[in-house]
Write a structure and sequence with these properties.
The structure holds three protein chains of three kinds. Chain A has 27 helices and 51 strands. Chain A has six domains: 1-157, 2Fe-2S iron-sulphur cluster binding domain, sarcosine oxidase, alpha subunit, N-terminal domain (Ubiquitin-like (UB roll), Roll); 162-288 and 417-484, FAD/NAD(P)-binding domain (3-Layer(bba) Sandwich), CATH 3.50.50.60; 291-413, FAD/NAD(P)-binding domain; 517-580, Arc Repressor Mutant, subunit A; 673-764, 2-Layer Sandwich (Alpha-Beta Plaits); 906-1003, Aminomethyltransferase beta-barrel domains (Elongation Factor Tu (Ef-tu), domain 3). The relative contact order of chain A is 0.07. In chain A, the strands form 14 sheets. In chain A, strands 9, 10, 13, 14, 15, 16 and 30 form a seven-stranded mixed sheet that branches. A six-stranded mixed sheet of chain A has the order 42-43-44-41-35-45. In chain A, strands 47-48-49-46-51-50 form a six-stranded antiparallel sheet. Chain B is built from two helices and six strands; from the N terminus they run E-E-E-H-E-E-E-H. The longest helix of chain B is centred in the C-terminal third of the chain and has 10 residues, at 90-99. Chain B is globular. The termini of chain C are far apart. In chain C, the strands form two sheets. Chain C has a six-stranded antiparallel sheet with strand order 1-2-8-11-10-9. In chain C, strand 9 (137-142) and strand 10 form a beta hairpin. Chain C is globular and about 55 Å long. By secondary structure, chain C is an alpha+beta fold. Chain C has a single domain, classed as Probable tRNA modification gtpase trme, domain 1 (Gyrase A, domain 2, 2-Layer Sandwich). Classes of the chains: A alpha+beta, B alpha+beta, C alpha+beta. Chains in contact: A-B, A-C, B-C. The B-C interface holds B 8-11, 13-14, 16-17, 60-64 and C 54-55, 68-70, 72, 126, 138-141, 146. Chain B: InterPro entries: SoxD, SoxD_sf. Chain B: GO terms for molecular function: sarcosine oxidase activity. Chain B: It holds the Pfam family SoxD.
Chain lengths: 1003, 107, 183
């Protein structure tokens, strides 16, 4: 059984006992424990079930590479699935539950998959669930979804908050082991701004566990001194619990800081996502131990050797009373020695190498440990826990020589440098034959904006596996990085670690070498996704030669651990099956994040009220107080209508239209874009921008204008006012102000930069109110202060003045066909002006109206709306707007585009009005059907509706739309399709439905 | 995420502060041009793997458009310069030639 | 006529940094090339400062002139002083090509105060505050909207568009929540 030892544990505080629960069982641990350590201390080796076969699975590792020990953590608003127990810090009250089993962890029905596993090989789903087609959606997928999947998705709103922050540094050092600390020391002393990140809660990495001696002292002492020295440097920042997730272009790094995972509910953000911009990045990310592939290597109790050592030394947890060590390298002996020194039994060290030799081997011998050289494990026995191992000759086929009773197996297949961050932006790898691993190729680093190396690498991450090498490597790498940053490293004595003579490792990809098919079908490569040696070999036999294809076919390395343990073993097996060298087969692509980043951290502050900026007009609060129903227009929120008690939105819109047409309506038009264009060349510039002529517009007058893009398609419209000799004010659509201002600046800066024109976007400087209806003039006269008579301020003119004491600019323009004034006031007076109009207008029947009433009224008048009548493929001529296009001008933006034959043709869909024969409203989005079918058997179309409304004025449905040669077909009856099936008949009419001669607006 | 220095205000802006604007040094063809000229101007944009000249606007900064010489394969930025020029400045051409000896020129 | 109202009516929030909406403040956007001879005189007449250099802001009491782009300056003054300043600019510039417009009402202005004010802003803007000196005006992005900021007093002045004042205030107040200090 696994248990807590009575002594030791460098990371735990035995005076701080904590309570937690696992599957409802109350358990005890200590501050400093990881959840995995605490579970093991309570003999909870079985923690989950595998994904496909539902085999019992135990804790394998002690760090982020753990594939099995994932749990649902917390509950309600703090439920998080797939949390890795090996990196989850224990806190009082922690709740964890195992996942991927039903009905219970101990008894799981899904385990039947295990007994039929020979019928579920790689590619099983691809091969099986193809026919019959409808079965996939209705039968196979629901069953697979039910039986597969990992943790449960949270249903409640996240109770915690998250944030993001930017950070800048000269050198970002990733990894707080001895290599990272030494690199940070070198760079810090050279004066560089250094940011040092460590994913764990503590510093020092493996060295203190491995018993390294630095400068004559235990590694832990050196680590403490280094951290203290770094904390004393003003130019160095240290962040623990901060995982560098990904390296991106030009020195950009995302890092996830687990600020309050271990102190939930203390008011701090749970995670903080750092967006780091670094001059250079130095990765000292260490290495991950590889499992060995022997039959039964997934039975709970089989663990990575160095992780076993971590549990014993860091947390005083014994994974088992009797642990067999199996290894192909000397490092495995450290575990055997650590176990023995903790007073635990090591029945045997099974070493695949024929002649192990070195300091550690000698020490194990001197401790009297049994070493089985040239041997391997034929099979691990046990169900939910290891009971024994059968050993055999490594060179043979698995004939059992001996069986050794044990309750844990510590395996070491060698070490793989963590090259993820090096690789994210294209850093290349080279095969290190001596250590049988890929490591960064210093000649082919990822590149920075200056073409130089963006990432440097040091320590075990660079293949410098021993402490002595790692410190030297880190010193050199940091000096190189600092020099590349243009700084000078200070001369300082590099720390020296005591050298330990180790014998060479020997690559072992399958144990034993000649294992039978039966054994290989029980050798797991990917624990989480249940991929075995036999699956990869099958993929190779079936022709999957590329490692990327094999990965997808077998799902090797595609689980949440992203193959941290399985990748190299898997591709070694593939290489053998293909009879190629490992470097030729290559690796799959490393992609961020290094370990999963929770969605909350990626969203950061953007949730609730600040999910997205909402643009508010100065009258927004009035609208809210008066029950406005809002609709988004770009990022603006505009009142769609102002429903009264008991009214539907539709009824409110009809009331607003009728009231405006008969009495007086007030519209908040502040969102309308307003751009000042000024300069000696402003007229010439606007003549290029608009299809019509603006240079000839007299001061004091307004003119409607259209803007097209260079292809000739209509992009925006609005009324232009001539303010003075050199100044024009251009109104744009509500959503278009920024885009059109950018468009103007583009031409002024990049094409006509010698023209003397300045622009300013003054959209938000003014609140604007449309005062509309037969009583509009009466209201302004009542406000008083300026002459707004027909004579003083005729249609399509503007005037400055005061109304009710407010400084205003009044435009006599109309988008409704009614007598209408659009009045601009400085935004800081907007709310007061709006209230004053309502107060004065009450006796004249004033009511606010919203965007929908605006739309209905403009459609009754046949006015186009950008985005309704246009969609980026419509030219002004399609809309019958030829009158707004100058024939005389030699050039304007879009003129050449419109000359293209297919646009100049009469054979286009063109704007007309439609009246349904039965008076109904044509459904939005309807197409006008044409006889016959196209090549795909779909019915042909000859047009579509662009605006369709019920007109409260005409008491019937009205519509505008584009119809093939429409204006030539007045009076014809066409049919619109509907979503429900069937069609609606409508007559083609002129699109101006109301007051065709414009008498109402011109009074 | 790219980091590009705006030549108009000197800020080293990250990509989120900029908006992209396709190929630089285009010659506009308006009325009077042939269909082929207009097509080339409007649609036939360069998309090289390697040295490329492109337009950027410092949209969340000084608002100015500028031009950048950049390698689309390695993302190396050879230099940035204001937009009011007809062709890349000589010093940037020299720098690119030094970094990419087999480069065939910007045309 | 009413008193001018700032976007949020002087909203306030206290966290590990204080956030306060100030204003309404007078602001003029002045566009002219730096080599226009009358420019120094116009700026002097309007706000009493010299012409700021690249990305600088010259502050004189309640008035300031900031460099916004190679041909754009932001003039800051009391709200009531705008009309006079516009007249002074027009007079000084004479026939020289320029554009001067009142943008006082188009903006919202915040003061973020306290020793850790920079930490609030570091959550919103991709700006290296360690290298942002006194007297530097930085135009950038605050989360999803445009902003301009500079050091002033014990903190920073942040300017954004009026329509997103509530969004920016909420961002700043959230960023200053106690317990979320960056160091």
């Amino acid at each position: 059984m696994s248990t807590r030892l009575s002594k030791g544990g460098r990371l735990i505080d035995r005076s701080a006992a904590l309570e937690f629960s696992f599957n409802g069982k109350r358990l005890k641990g200590y501050r400093g424990d990881t959840l995995a350590a605490a579970l093991l201390a309570n003999d909870q080796m079985l923690v989950g079930r595998s994904f496909k076969y539902h085999r019992p699975r135990g804790i394998v590792a002690a760090g982020p590479e753990e594939p099995n020990a994932l749990v649902n953590l917390g509950s309600g608003g703090r439920l998080e699935p797939n949390q890795r127990t090996t990196v989850t810090e224990l806190f009082d009250g922690l709740e964890a539950a195992s996942q991927n089993h039903w009905p219970s962890l101990e008894f799981d029905v899904g385990v039947v998959n295990n007994y039929v596993s020979r019928f579920l090989p790689a590619g099983f789903y691809y091969k099986t669930f193809i026919h019959p087609r409808p079965f996939w959606k209705h039968v196979f997928e629901p069953i697979i979804r039910q039986s597969a999947g990992l943790g449960s998705a949270p249903k409640d709103r996240d109770a915690d908050r998250y944030e993001q922050a930017y950070a800048f540094c000269d050198l970002l050092v990733v990894g707080g082991g001895i290599a990272g600390l030494q690199a940070a020391l070198v760079a810090g002393r050279a004066g560089a701004r250094v940011l040092l990140l460590e994913q764990a809660a503590h510093w020092g990495g493996r060295a203190p566990v491995d018993g390294d001696v630095i400068d004559g002292k235990p590694a832990g002492d050196w680590v403490d001194a280094a951290v203290a020295a770094l904390e004393g440097m003003e130019n160095v920042t240290l962040r623990a619990r901060c995982m560098a997730a990904g390296v991106y272009d030009h020195g950009y790094v995302l890092a996830d800081e687990k600020v309050a995972d271990h102190t939930p509910g203390d008011g701090r953000p749970k995670h903080r996502l750092w967006r780091i911009r670094a001059g250079k990045i130095l990765t000292a990310t260490g290495a991950i131990e590889r499992p060995l592939s022997f039959a039964g290597n997934d039975i709970p109790g089989v663990m990575l050797a160095a992780s076993v050592r971590d549990y014993v030394v860091n947390w005083a947890v014994s994974p088992g009373d009797r642990t067999v060590v199996v290894t192909n390298n000397d490092d495995g002996y450290r575990t055997a020695i650590a176990l023995r020194e903790a007073g635990l039994a090591v029945p045997a060290i099974v070493d695949a190498r024929a002649n192990p030799a070195g300091d550690l081997v000698a020490k194990a011998r001197s401790l009297g440990l049994r070493i089985e050289a040239g041997r391997g494990i034929a099979k691990v026995k046990g169900g939910k826990r290891v009971t024994s191992v059968a050993i055999c000759l490594q060179a043979g086929e698995g004939a059992v020589i001996d069986e050794i009773a044990c309750d844990a197996v510590a395996m070491s297949g060698g070490w793989s440098p963590v090259v993820h961050l090096w690789s994210h932006c294209g850093g290349k790898l080279t095969w290190d034959t001596a250590n049988a691993c890929f490591r960064p190729d210093p000649a082919r680093p990822p590149l920075n904006h200056d073409g130089g190396a963006m990432v440097h690498v040091a320590g075990a991450a660079n293949g410098a596996m021993k402490a002595a090498e790692a410190l030297l490597d880190a010193t050199a790498a940091a000096e190189a990085a600092v020099t590349a940053l243009g700084m000078k490293p200070k001369k300082a004595k590099a720390p020296v670690a005591e050298a330990v003579a180790e014998g060479p490792m020997e690559a072992v990809w399958i144990m034993p070498q000649g294992a039978s098919a039966e054994l290989k079908a029980k050798m797991w490569l990917d624990y989480q996704n249940d991929v075995k040696v036999s699956d990869v070999q099958l993929a190779a036999r079936e022709g999957y030669e590329s490692v990327e294809h094999t990965k997808r076919y077998t799902t090797l390395g595609m689980a949440t651990d992203q193959g941290k343990l399985s990748n190299i073993n898997g591709l070694a097996v593939l290489a053998q099956a293909l009879n190629e060298d490992i470097p030729q087969v290559g690796t799959t692509t490393f992609r961020p994040p290094y370990t999963p980043v929770t969605l909350g951290a990626l969203a950061g502050e953007a949730r609730g009220e600040i999910f997205q900026p909402l643009r508010r007009t100065p009258m927004h609060e009035w609208h809210e107080r008066n029950g406005a129903y809002f609709e988004p227009v770009g990022l603006w929120r505009r009142p769609y209508c102002f429903p009264r008690a008991g009214e539907t939105h539709e009824q409110a819109v009809h009331r607003e239209v009728t009231n405006t047409r008969e009495r007086l309506g007030l519209l908040d038009a502040s969102t309308l874009g307003k751009i000042i264009v000024k300069g000696p060349d402003a007229g010439k510039f606007l003549d290029m921008l608009y299809t019509g002529v603006m240079s000839t517009l007299p001061v004091g007058k307004c003119r409607y204008g259209l803007m097209c893009n260079e292809q000739g398609f209509l992009s925006d419209d609005g009324v232009v006012a001539r303010i003075d000799e050199e100044t024009w004010l251009c109104h744009t659509t509500s959503g278009g102000a920024d885009r059109i201002h950018g468009w103007m600046e583009d031409w002024l800066q990049c094409e006509w930069w010698d023209w003397q024109v300045y622009t300013a976007n003054v959209t938000e400087q003014y609140a604007q109110v449309a005062v509309v209806g037969p009583n509009a003039r009466k209201l302004l006269e009542k406000m008083g202060g300026m002459d707004v008579s027909k004579e003083a301020l005729p249609f399509m003119q503007w005037a400055d003045g005061r109304l009710g004491g407010f400084p205003v600019r009044v435009y006599r323009i109309s988008f409704s066909g009614e007598l209408s004034y659009e009045i601009a006031v400085p935004a800081s007076h907007g709310a007061a002006f709006w209230a004053a109009l309502h107060a004065a207008g009450a006796e004249l029947g004033a009511m606010p109206y919203g965007t929908e009433a605006l739309h209905v009224m403009r459609a009754e008048k046949g006015f186009i709306m950008i985005g309704d009548e246009t969609d980026g493929t419509v030219i002004p001529q399609d809309l019958g707007l030829d009158w707004a296009i100058s024939k005389k001008k030699e050039d304007f933006l879009g003129k050449r585009g419109q000359q293209r034959t297919f646009l100049a043709s009469a054979d286009r869909w063109k704007l007309v009005g439609f009246e349904t024969l039965d008076g109904s409203v044509i459904p939005d989005g309807s197409y006008i059907v044409a006889p016959g079918v196209n090549a795909n058997g779909q019915g042909k179309t000859q047009g579509r509706v662009t605006s369709t409304y019920y007109s409260p004025t005409l008491k019937r449905g009205i519509a505008m739309g584009l119809l093939h040669r429409g204006p030539e077909r007045m009076g014809e009856v066409v049919e619109f399709n509907t979503v429900k099936g069937g069609t609606v008949k409508a007559r083609v009419v002129n699109q101006v439905f109301f007051d065709k001669d414009g008498e109402k607006q011109n009074v | 995420m790219l980091l590009i220095e705006c030549p108009c205000c000197g800020v080293k802006a990250e990509e989120t502060e900029l908006s992209p604007g396709y190929e630089a040094h285009l010659k506009r063809f308006g009325p009077g041009s042939t269909d082929e000229e207009f097509e080339a101007y409007m649609f036939a944009r360069k998309n090289p793997k390697g040295v490329h000249f492109e337009r950027w606007r410092h949209a969340y900064g000084c608002g100015k458009w500028f031009l950048a010489a950049r390698c689309t394969a390695t993302l190396e930025v050879f230099g940035t310069y204001p937009a009011q020029v007809g062709e890349p400045p000589a010093d940037i051409i020299e720098k690119i030639k030094a970094r990419r000896p087999d480069w065939k020129g910007y045309k | 006529m009413s008193e001018p109202m700032s976007a949020l009516g002087g909203a306030k929030s206290e966290g590990f940094a204080s956030v306060r909406e100030i204003g309404p403040l007078g602001m003029i956007s002045l566009r002219a090339k730096a080599d226009v001879k009358a420019l120094p005189k116009a700026i002097k007449a309007a706000v009493g400062t010299g012409v700021p250099g690249l990305r600088r802001i010259e502050i004189e009491g309640e008035r300031a002139c900031g460099w916004m782009s190679p041909d754009e300056y932001l003039l800051v003054m009391p709200y009531g002083a705008v009309a006079g300043a516009l007249e002074a600019i027009a007079k000084a510039m004479g026939g020289a090509h320029h554009l001067a417009v009142d943008v006082s009402d188009a903006r919202a202005v915040f003061r973020v105060g306290g020793a850790k004010a920079d930490q609030v802003l570091a959550k919103l803007a991709p700006v290296d505050f360690a290298t942002l000196g006194t007297g530097e005006l930085r135009r950038t992005r605050a989360a999803q909207v445009a902003a301009a900021l500079w050091k002033e007093g014990d903190g920073f002045t942040v300017v954004c568009f009026r329509s997103v004042a509530r969004y920016v205030f909420d961002l700043l107040a959230t960023g200053a929540t106690p317990g979320s200090e960056l160091s």
